[in-house]
Design a protein that fits this description.
By secondary structure, the protein is α+β, with helices and mostly antiparallel strands. It is built from 2 helices and 9 strands, in the order ααβββββββββ. It folds into 2 domains: 12-62; 73-197, no CATH class. 16% of the residues lie in helices and 25% in strands. Helix 1 runs antiparallel to helix 2.
Length: 212
């Protein structure tokens, strides 16, 4: 699930350090006190300047920022969660092959039911991929990536802002929905939303498609 580093001649250990630095910066943004506009500005700067940016290296000098829906208060919801059981393997279509996830629970959102997953690997982590109605091409230049988006991937440091758990309920903020790295470049291979995490309702919040 890692891309080839922009500087392919760099020693592998240094590329790993770049990746560790990138993930640390992502986690720091999610745990910061920035508002949504400040968060998006910081993310755009990271994409434009970091050697582990998911966009193509040749695109970075002219990169003018990602495309987002405006803040949508209706996309911030607190929902019940009911238990769910069983494992599911999601294919990455890359060298990682299929990754196994454990169902944590079913989130009863206003947009439809979504399964929250736990990554069954060392350290684990919550994972919430989804595809909603905005992925349809008839949304034009306001559509989202056709294969879906992520709301949470705690392995990558997306803590707190998009998902908070308290008193048996879950607060979701879809204004922080974002594209998987494979939406920006073919260098990446990503697990995408399975059928049970696809809803027909449009969620007009978060990041739009990168390549129109």
């Amino acid at each position: 699930m890692e891309p080839t580093a922009p500087d392919a001649a760099a020693p592998v250990p240094f590329r790993r350090l770049d990746l560790a630095d990138y993930r640390q910066r992502v986690a720091s943004m999610f745990l910061s006190d920035l508002d949504l506009a400040g968060f998006r500005k910081a993310k755009d700067e990271l994409f434009a300047t970091h050697p582990q940016s998911p966009i193509e290296p040749e695109e970075q000098p002219a990169f003018a920022g990602l495309r987002y829906y405006p803040l949508n208060d209706d996309a911030i919801v607190t929902v019940p969660i009911r238990p769910a059981h069983g494992d599911f393997a999601i294919e990455t279509n890359g060298p990682d092959g299929a990754i196994v996830y454990e169902r944590v629970g079913i989130l009863e959102t206003p947009f439809g039911e979504l399964t929250l997953w736990w990554i069954k690997a060392y350290g684990g982590g919550l994972f919430l991929p989804f595809r909603d109605g905005t992925a349809a091409r008839d949304f034009g230049d306001e559509r989202t990536y056709g294969a879906g988006r992520y709301l949470v991937d705690t392995v990558k440091g997306t803590f707190d802002r998009p998902l908070r758990i308290a008193d048996g309920a879950v607060r979701l903020d879809f204004n922080y929905a974002y594209n998987a790295s494979c939406a920006y470049s073919d260098r990446w291979a990503c697990p995408l939303a399975p059928e049970e995490n696809r809803v027909a309702a449009p969620i007009r919040a978060g990041e739009m498609v990168y390549h129109l």
